[in-house]
Amino acid sequence: MSENPSIWGELAGLTLTKGHGTGNDFIFLTDENAEIALTPELVARACDRHFGIGADGFIRAARSTASRAGQKLIEEHPDAVWFMDYRNGDGSVAEMCGNGVRAFVEYLRTEGLIELEVGETVKIGTRAGVKTVARTEEGYAIDMGPWSFIHGDAAREGGEDCLVSARGLKTPRAGLSISMGNPHTVVMLGSEGKLDGLDLHSLPQVNPAPVNGTNVEFVVPVDLDVESGAHVGAIRMRVHERGVGETLSCGTGACAAAAATRFWGGEEAPDEWLVHVPGGTLAVTFVLGPDDLEHVVLAGPAQMVATVVLR
Question: How far apart are CA 295 and CA 215, in angstroms?
Answer without folding.
Answer: 20
